[in-house]
Each structure stands twice: as C-alpha cells, then as structure tokens.
Amino acid sequence: MKQLWVDVAIVGGGPAGIAAALELRRRGVARVVLLDREETIGGIPRHCGHPSFGLFEFGRLLRGPAYARKLADAAFAAGVEIRTRHTVVAPREEGHLEVATPEGILAIHAARTIIATGARETPLAARLISGDRLIGCLTTGSLQAFLYLHNLIPFRRPVILGTEIVSLSAVLTCRFAGLQPAAVIESDPWPTVQRPWDFLPRMLGIPMYFGAEITDIRGNGRVQSVRVELADGGVREIACDGVLCTGRFVPEIGLLTNSHLTVDEGSGGPSIDQFGRCSDPQYFAAGNVLRPVETAGWSYREGRRIGGFVADDLSQGLPNYVRSVQIVRRPHVKLVVPQRVAMPLSSEGLGQLQLRFDSVATGDLTVEADGQCLWRRRIKARPERRFLVSLTNLDGASGADVITIGIREN
Amino acid sequence: MIFDSSYDVAVIGGGVVGCAMARRFTLEGAKVVLLEKAPDILTGASKGNSAILHTGFDAPPGSLELTCIRRGYQEYLEIREGLGLPWLKTGAVVVAWNEHEAAQLDALEARAKANGVIDVRQISRNELLEREPNLSPKAQAGLVVSGESIIDPWSAPLAYLRQAIENGAETRFSTPVLSGTFSGSTWNLVTESGPIVARTVINCAGLFGDIVESRLLGSAGFTIRPVKGQFVVFDKAATKLLNSILLRVPTERTKGILLARTIFGNVLIGPTAEEQQDRERATVDRNSLKMLLERAAEIIPALKSIPVTAVYAGLRPATERREYRISFHPAWQYAAVGGIRSTGLTSALGIARHVFALYSERGSRHTALERPLWSQTANLAEHCARDWQSPGYGEIICHCELTTRREVEQAFAGPLPARDFGGLKRRTRAGMGRCQGFYCSARLADLSRGRLVDPLALEGRG
C-alpha cells in the first residue's frame, strides 16, 4: 500500500476546505493536502447557477461555478497539494486515513486532519413519503448536477417539496432551465422562510399548498402524478413527472460512520470544541459538516478560522486545557456548535455558540452552569434560523461540570 | 422476430425460482430458454425480500417447503464459492418478549430439531443481553439458531441465471407469454416476441403464476393472493448495534417482523404483511413505515437516533393455501411452481432440484454437463473485497456505496446487462446509499444514456 506523510490533510474541497487550506499555507504550513472525491474541487457551488457568491472572498458577486473556479485557482496558486478522485474511506486513530484512489488504496498519515465534507439534502426515502419509488425523484443538489454538470434534463414538470432558502433556488433553477414546477408543497401551515415565499410563486404562477402532505406517488417507471392531502382535508391529484425534495440538510458524514470520532445527535456532524477540534484532537472539522446549513461565504470564513487554529496547534499548540465541558441542549434547541468548550476559556476560538431551534417558541434563552444562570435573553425562536451566543457569556462556567442551554418559556 | 429453434424446456419467469430452475435444467443437460415479461430479472417478488438464507427451523414439519429450504440452503453453501456469492453467518435469535412467548420456545426448539436443524439452543435473558448488548432489556429469553445467515438477494439469482447462460441457456426479456398450445409432444408458446417451441414448460411466474397457468391450461389450479411487505433500511451506523437476525416468536398467521443486518452493511426491519389485489404495485405508506421505526426502537432503543437510508415494499406470491404449490403434469409436459411466499430466496435451488426430479422420473432424459463453466459474480458484500479496493476502477460514482465506474460499466456488459435503473442498482448498489442519489444520480444518468428502458434523464439540454 502506498503511504503519504503530510502536515495537514483536508477532506473535502468545498469553500470550507479550500479556505482552511489557504489559511494553513498563508501561515507557512508546508505540506497541505486537499482531498476531494469528485473530479474537480469547488464543492456544491460548482453546480449552483445563481449569482450570490464571493462578495466577502473576492469582493464581487459571482455565480457558483465561477466562484468555485476562483477558489480552486487560489488553492493551486497557494501551493496546496490538490488530490481529486481521492475518497477517504475511514479516518483512523493517530491521523491515519484510508483513501481509495483509482490507482489503489493510499494510506495518508496526517499530523492534523480537517473534515470539511459539507452537507446534503434529505432524499424522498428518509422523509417516509408514501407511494411508489419511481424515476424522477430528486433533490435540488442532484437537479443542479443534472443541469449544470451534465447538461441533462431529468423532468419537465416537478412537484417541489419544501419552502426553505434552497427551495427558492430550486424554483429559480427550474425557471432557468425552462422547467415548469407543477406545485410547491409545504407540510407546515407557513413557509419555512417567509420572504419571498409569500409572493414569488404566485408571481411565477406556481400553485402553493401549505399544511399539505403527499399521500401517494404514482407512475409507471417514471412519476406521473402525486396525490396531495390538503390542509382543509381535501385531496388533490397533481399531474407531474418528478418530485423535487428540497432542503432538510444533513451533514455528510459517511466517512465518520463507525469511525472512532464522536458524532453529535443534535447537529448530525462531528462533535467539536471552540477550536473545531473533534473528540480525537488530531482531527478538526469546518463548514457545513458542522451543522446544516450556512452559506458558502460563512463556510469559507469558518474554514479560514479553523485552518488558523490548526496552524496554531502545529506551531505552538492550542491552549492547553485541563478539561472540556459538555454543552447540554434543553427543549427547543435543536443543535449547538461547538458541543463542548475547553476550559478555562482563556482563548475563545470560534468565539460563539451557533444555535438552531426545532420549534417556534418565545421565552428566555438561558445558559446555565450547574443550575446557575450565566446569561439570558428573551427571544422568539423559529426553526431553521441561526442564533449566536458569545462565548464570553460562558466565562463564569470555568468550574462547572455541565453547561445547559435552552428556552424557558414564560 | 421469429425464433426458429426449439427447446427442451421453457422456464417462464425470471425471479429467483426461474433463475435457479434455468440453471438446474441447463446443468442437467437440457436446452433451456427463460422467458421474462420485464426487461430484466428480479422485477417481481424477488425484488424485495428480507435477504435471509433460512435454515428451515420453523418451517412446517414434513412439508415440501422444508425439504426445498434444506436442500436450497445446502446447495447455496456448496456453490457459493464457485459463483463468488457472499455468506454471512450471523445466526438468528428468536426473542421472547413476555412469559407467554418464552413458554413457546420449547416447542420451537423441538420443531427445529425435528426439522433437522440441530444447532439451536435456548439462552437466558443474561446470555441474550450479552450476545446482543443493545437489545431492549425488556427481552426475556431467546432461542439461538446458529445457521441463519444473510446473503445478497440479487447477486445470487443473477449468478444462477448467468451460469445457465454461460452453459448454453437462452433468455428472452420483455417477452410476456400470451398463450400456448400443447400438441401432445411440444408446446407452442405465443409471446410478444414471437413463437417459442419447447417440449416442457415450467411456470415460475411468481405473482402471475395463476394467470400464466390459465393462459396455458385454460384454468389455474391455484390463485395468487399477493401479500405486501414493507421494509425500512437504516443507515450503516446501525450495523454495530446488532449481531444476530432478531426474530419474533411466530404466530399462526405470520413469521412476524424481523430485524437484521444486511450483507451491504445496513440494518433492515420488516416485513409488514398486507393482503392486496394488485400484483405489481407495491407502495410504501408513511404510517406503516412509522410503525416499523417504532418497532425497531422497541427492539433496539439506540436505533431511534439512526437515520433511515431507504424504504421499500415487496410482494409475496401467496395463494389461498399456506403451502408451496408445486405440481407436475406429465401428460401436459407442464410444471407449475406457485405460492413461493417468503422463503423462495433460500429454497429456489432446492425447488429446482425437486422439479427436475419430478421431470426426470417421468422419463425425460438428458446427459448432465460434464464440466460446466463457473464464473465469479461481482461482489457487493461489505465484509468481502469490493471493487474500489483494486486499482484501475476509474472513478467512484456512488460515494455512499463506493460503487466504481468499472462496476457500472460491467453491469451494462455481459450476457445479463442491467436494462432498467432498478437492475443497475441491484447489480452495483449505485444510488442505494444514504444520500439516495444526491451526489451520483446525474452522473449515473450520463453513464446510463441509451442503456435503460426508462432513462434517468429525459434529454440533453442541447
């Protein structure tokens, strides 16, 4: 088996992974290897046709593919060793990565590894939707890959499931490719993202059904119709040739399955401390694998910061910590990242706790250490909306065994 | 199209039974043609089952089903290395969840031993929880059946038929049998691809067995009453949560819902048992899937936090009687294999031997092939070497299942190429992983252009 010794291996060449690689090179780390299983690096933006990328990184608005190319060029120019069609199969202890390559299995030994494998949407099956399983059921990401990477059209008249931000991207992608969505279906009584879902579909002439569920998918080989139970109890049969599942992002952690690294139930990604360190301190993680889901720009900035922490760790070692304290989620808190903080909080690392909520709630968001309130603020929580809490609010928790965070409704 | 050659045997149906039948008769020296109405094999009952190689420990004593299961099990182990088929002997535990069920383990053990399955023993609650540490502590006792195993439900029949073809059998796909007349010495079958002449017809048409029999004989000796079974497949993170196949104490009605690892590294729960009229449509429904998820979490609480990878439903070709309906009509040179409900994956090889024995008892003589060809089937089992581990695979197409381009290309090559997306998935695992095609479906659409009856893409954008 071929062996490779490197300073830092980065798994995943999307915005977060590339940004981490750039930062590590800027800080003078010699051998930085960027591994990507696809043929080209750039990640999800490679197939996002809409122009909303790059303002922070390059000072101008770019379409996804152009943004991805600029990132790739920057990595190349910075002396990052780019290895595509490299699939990390298993991260093991002592920084040993088992990597599948077309030339055979490769063993990479990395002083540090950064996992930046991103996120993906939840497909039809995992949504437990009734009906047949037929050709024409896709996610936004795969639709964009059909259109932008392969010049193929998978359907002409899909039903779109979901009203997240990415669902909007799905509608626009359809419009761009000349596909006419047959309907947008949302199981909640309201859109996940208020604007522009309250006016856009009507403007585009797409029927919208809120509080509605697909109860059957019918067809013959390929989707021909869906049956939808409406909010008022009525039933509608909608002719269509596809079902486009949008959003409900989950971290892509296939390589962590059955590995020694701890995966957090809340975020679905690897559990980290405020420096992005995983349960094995030779491993770090950055970007949307940490939590579903932020923009490419956010992931890029996060990748840069965590790349910087890795450089710190390699040069003088990250602040030695006596112990780390787990942050326990209380009702309404779907996820918190980082999931634990190294104490004492002499260095803040990422500086913030990222929170998401699983339900609508109004009350005091409360941070407690061993039952004692450290910080509180009255908030109105809504699902899929980011909320940040500064780590300086946790200063009083140095001696605590456990920190909890949750909403006390009142 | 007209096929002018005539055959010793026409096998109708390309499910696991038909594939095993074609193989057995070919190896025994008969000239065989297999007729399948769909574009590919395994599109009916054999498409969705629980992928278990049964010992027959709980089969009806003295039944033909038991005989065929025992023979099928034994032959699978004899031929699996020659055909490159995987076998994972996980063993099964019949778990008793209350005293009433625990009291039935004695009878179950006695039945197993009477059935010739001697490697069974009862274990205490402590030993059970030691063997299955993630099992709910509500479990009371268990009966271990060491021989129960998991296999690849699709590579096995594929290998059977491919070996038949390599040794001279022929196949006709997209070829429904419309009618047939028996002249007293030969059958003239009318199919959608033209006439087929064969001396003997073996009806292995599964869910359509009674319809085919009516078309040939004017009436059918059995009636198919399809039973739907829904399954949920958990993410590969679940595989470390159990060792054995976990079974329920069977009732009069059903073998019940089982929880098992799959040879591909997942965990599945199912099947439900729902009678229905439709012979083709097997839909999943949310309520049943949720029930299965709840049941899974009752058995192994840690499954509650494991994501769902896939859901599917299959149909069992049950009949009005709870037994195999295998008959041979020497005067008509016709055999029917009906009612192969849920043990067909195991028993198919045994059924083929049984039917061949009936056939040769009535005077049909062939000379068995002296040195039949054997070739290895592409391995998809997680515990054996996969294609991505050998250099030169080109690229990985499906990242979740680590399917290579070389595997996809091979699935389209050879005597039994994939002709629909289901067939491609069954041959390669592509698209069957946790992302269900998020990363690979567009690439697969590109690679499969011009190969599939229902293409993944409608057209190019020009």
Would you give an account of this structure?
The complex is a heterodimer of chains A (410) and B (462). Chain A has helices at residues 15-26, 55-58, 64-77, 140-149, 165-176, 194-197, 200-204, 296-315, and strands at 2-11, 32-35, 51-53, 62-63, 81-83, 87-91, 96-101, 104-115, 119-120, 137-139, 152-153, 158-161, 183-186, 208-210, 213-220, 222-229, 235-239, 242-245, 250-251, 283-285, 323-329, 333-337, 340-343, 352-357, 361-369, 372-381, 387-390, 402-409. Chain A is α/β, with parallel strands linked by helices. The model of chain A has no long low-confidence stretch (mean pLDDT 93). The model of chain B has no long low-confidence stretch (mean pLDDT 95). Chain B is of the alpha+beta class. Chain B is 28% helix and 22% strand. In chain B, helix 1 (16-27) runs parallel beside helix 6, helix 1 packs across helix 9 (344-361) and helix 2 crosses helix 9. Chains A and B meet through helix 4, strand 11 and strand 15 of A and helix 8, strand 17, helix 12 and strand 22 of B. Strand 11 of chain A pairs antiparallel with strand 22 (459-460) of chain B, so a sheet runs across the interface.
Question: What features would you highlight for this structure?
Answer:
heterodimer; A: 410 residues; alpha/beta; 5-stranded parallel β-sheet; B: 462 residues; alpha+beta; 8-stranded mixed β-sheet; 5-stranded antiparallel β-sheet; 28% helix; globular
Major beta sheet summary of chain A: 7 strands, mixed
Low-pLDDT segments, ≥5 res of chain B:
none
Q: What portion of residues of chain B belong to β-strands? A: 15-25%
Radius of gyration of chain A: 22 Å
* Main sheet summary of chain B: 8 strands, mixed
Average pLDDT value of chain B?
95
Biggest interface reads: A-B, 53 and 56 residues
The number of strands of chain A is 28
Assembly type of the shown chains? heterodimer
Cα-to-Cα separation, first versus last residue of chain A: 62 Å
Uncertain runs of chain A are: none
Proportion of residues in helical segments of chain A:
10-25%
- Nearest-angstrom radius of gyration of chain B? 22 Å
